[in-house]
């Protein structure tokens, strides 16, 4: 999984039940997330994906078990600020995250809450906007941007916290195709730069970018592994309440016709190359 | 459509001297003027209205959104005028049956209505030129002494600023709910007032649910970005009042006080 000193988030025997709920949203989760890797968390509606994301950021504290971020226990109130500094979140609806009247002030909101000096805030804001590629929007009003641009502003706001991880809670689900591509490309670039990414989604195509895929089913981990291992069987994927990748359905049909496509092909371009060869 | 022209409480992005002014000074000047407006009679009101007009024109603040914000209170203005007009005793100028207009009633009607209009214009000028977060910063700074009385100043300031920020959100949501209710046959344009009121009730429940949901999402997003009540927050652009701004504010408040003696 990587070197022993890298920054990690751990969930150990995590159960979470919302107040007045009849059952657990998470029922005994054991997972480990390592900085510098990208994780995709999949699952049907109500499977516990968002609850898991919120536990990682310390927004929710497990009812049973524990979540540690860089060794800090999220149940320890004194660690809350440090955990949220290290694990930034990007939410589904960009409109619900905007609070400032200009993009740069929106990006600055997190560092301002950390009590940094203005010069340091300026540096973080500029770096985050450059990384995301939204410097030209600095003076614009966030509410007047497109949904895709708003979500990039939200990612910049998260990056300005200079976190170790970004947890994206279905941050692409309200975006059009192009905007989704831009956000995912950005996540890939951030992972390559050494950030940990936990991307909660119900689009299987987005999970192909991840190093590890986690599938949740009724609050438990139903499957976990590399995308090629977890997503290649359309029947298993469908059994978990998800729509399988079309390419895997085609491969299964090809198999019934006697064609043996090499294992691990999840991409249509890859399949076409194999067919042409 | 409901609320489409209500601009009260909304920030309007522009580059005027009022926009760049220190929020603490703007709040102090606005609150002083709002209090003093209640002391103005006759010529004091006329002079104050003139002074406000000169200032707003000088800083080139768009007047149309300010005037639009009056639509939110026109019912109150008209009611105030009519109640003062017909219910104040004095020398009768005109009488029809039990209704009589007196000289004092006419004067009071004009004065009280003008005061309400000026209050809305003052508040509108403040919120139009000050983003909600800056407004919260200014309030927090001015109310700081109340901390010694255990008042959660930063939280109060944040609540006020977010409330203002949510006004356009609530209006937008109400428009969406109304459109969807109209698609199902609700009648918001009928001449029958009773029917319109009846059809408005189903709008309120989904509207409240959505607004509570949105405010909860915003609170979670703020908390996730380490917001903890505003204590110890620093700023990308710290508040800094220029000497000219301070002098102008003092001159404005002094002028407002002087007008109360007219």
What can you see in these coordinates?
- The complex is a heterodimer of chains A (277) and B (262).
- The two termini of chain A are 34 Å apart.
- Chain A contains eleven helices and ten strands.
- By secondary structure, chain A is of the alpha/beta class.
- Chain A has a six-stranded mixed sheet with strand order 6-7-8-3-9-10, sandwiched between helices. A four-stranded antiparallel sheet of chain A has the order 2-1-4-5, with helices on one face.
- Chain B has 262 residues and is mainly alpha-helical.
- Chain B folds into two domains: 1-130 and 235-262, no CATH class; 132-231, no CATH class.
- Helix content of chain B is 67%, strand content 3%.
- Chain B has a two-stranded antiparallel ribbon with strand order 1-2.
- The relative contact order of chain B is 0.15.
Order of helices and strands of chain A: EEEHEEHEHHHEHEHEEHHHH
Main sheet properties of chain A: 6 strands, mixed
- The chain-level structural class of chain B is mainly alpha
Q: Calculate the mean pLDDT score of chain A and round it.
A: 92
* Count of DSSP-assigned helices of chain A: 11
Mean pLDDT of chain B: 87
Main beta sheet of chain B? 2 strands, antiparallel
**Coarse shape of chain B:** flat
Our estimate of the beta-strand percent of chain A is 15-25%
Spell out the helices and strands of chain B N to C.
Answer: HHHHHEEHHHHH
Summed up, the helix count of chain B is 10
What is this structure, in a nutshell?
Chain A has 277 residues and is α/β, with parallel strands linked by helices.
Write out key terms for the chains shown:
heterodimer; A: 277 residues; alpha/beta; 6-stranded mixed β-sheet; 4-stranded antiparallel β-sheet; 10 strands; B: 262 residues; mainly alpha; 2 domains; two-stranded antiparallel ribbon; 10 helices
Describe how the helices and strands are arranged.
The complex is a heterodimer of chains A (277) and B (262).
Chain A: E1 8-16, E2 26-34, E3 38-42, H1 49-56, E4 64-69, E5 72-73, H2 80-86, E6 87-90, H3 103-113, H4 118-132, H5 147-159, E7 165-169, H6 177-192, E8 196-200, H7 204-207, E9 212-217, E10 220-225, H8 227-230, H9 234-239, H10 246-256, H11 268-276
Parallel strand pairs in A: 3-8, 3-9, 6-7, 7-8
Antiparallel strand pairs in A: 1-2, 1-4, 4-5, 9-10
Chain B: H1 17-20, H2 23-37, H3 42-58, H4 63-69, H5 74-87, E1 92-96, E2 99-102, H6 103-129, H7 132-142, H8 153-183, H9 193-224, H10 243-259
Antiparallel strand pairs in B: 1-2
């Amino acid at each position: 999984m990587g070197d022993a000193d890298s920054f990690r988030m751990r969930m150990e025997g995590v159960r979470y039940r919302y107040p007045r709920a009849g059952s657990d949203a998470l029922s005994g989760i054991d997972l480990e997330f390592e900085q510098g890797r990208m994780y995709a968390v999949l699952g049907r509606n109500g499977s516990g994906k968002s609850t898991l994301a919120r536990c990682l950021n310390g927004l929710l504290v497990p009812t049973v078990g524990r979540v540690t971020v860089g060794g800090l226990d999220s149940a320890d109130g004194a660690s809350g600020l440090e955990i949220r500094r290290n694990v930034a979140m990007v939410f589904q609806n960009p409109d619900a995250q905007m609070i400032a009247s200009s993009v740069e002030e929106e990006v600055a909101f997190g560092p301002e809450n950390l009590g940094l000096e203005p010069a340091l805030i300026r540096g973080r804001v500029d770096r985050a906007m450059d990384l995301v590629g939204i410097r030209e929007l600095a003076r614009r009003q966030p509410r007047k941007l497109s949904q895709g641009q708003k979500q990039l502003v939200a990612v910049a706001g998260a990056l300005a916290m200079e976190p170790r991880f970004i947890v994206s809670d279905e941050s692409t689900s309200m975006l059009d195709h192009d905007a989704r591509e831009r956000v995912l490309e950005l996540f890939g670039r951030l992972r390559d730069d050494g950030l940990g990414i936990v991307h909660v989604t119900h689009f299987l195509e987005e999970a192909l970018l991840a190093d590890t895929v986690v599938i949740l089913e009724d609050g438990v981990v139903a499957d976990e592994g590399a995308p090629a291992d977890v997503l290649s069987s359309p029947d298993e994927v469908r059994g978990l309440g998800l729509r399988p990748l079309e390419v895997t359905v085609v491969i299964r049909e090809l198999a019934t016709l006697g064609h043996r496509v090499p294992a691990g092909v999840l991409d249509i371009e890859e399949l076409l190359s194999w067919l042409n060869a | 459509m409901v609320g489409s022209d209500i601009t009260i409480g909304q920030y309007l992005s522009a580059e005027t001297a009022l926009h760049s002014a220190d929020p603490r000074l703007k709040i102090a000047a606005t609150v002083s003027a709002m209090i003093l407006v209640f002391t103005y009679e006759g010529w004091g009101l006329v002079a104050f209205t003139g002074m406000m007009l000169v200032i707003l024109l000088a800083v080139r603040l768009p007047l149309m959104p300010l005037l639009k914000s009056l639509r939110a209170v026109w019912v109150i203005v008209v009611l105030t005028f009519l109640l003062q007009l017909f219910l104040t005793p004095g020398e009768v100028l005109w009488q029809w049956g039990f209704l009589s207009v007196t000289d004092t009633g006419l004067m009071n009607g004009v004065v009280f209505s003008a005061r309400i209009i000026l209050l809305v214009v003052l508040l509108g000028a403040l919120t139009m030129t000050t983003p909600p977060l800056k407004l919260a910063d200014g309030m927090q700074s001015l109310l700081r002494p109340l901390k010694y009385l255990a008042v959660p100043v930063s939280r109060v300031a944040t609540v006020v600023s977010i409330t203002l920020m949510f006004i356009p959100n609530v209006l937008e949501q109400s428009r969406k709910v109304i459109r969807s209710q109209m698609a199902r046959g609700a009648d918001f344009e009928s001449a029958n007032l009773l029917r319109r009121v009846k059809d408005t009730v189903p709008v309120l429940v989904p509207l409240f649910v959505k607004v509570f949901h949105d405010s909860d999402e915003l609170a979670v997003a703020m908390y996730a970005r380490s917001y903890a009540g505003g204590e110890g927050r620093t700023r990308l652009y710290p508040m800094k009042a220029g000497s000219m701004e301070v002098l102008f504010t003092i001159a404005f408040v002094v002028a407002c006080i002087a007008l109360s003696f007219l």
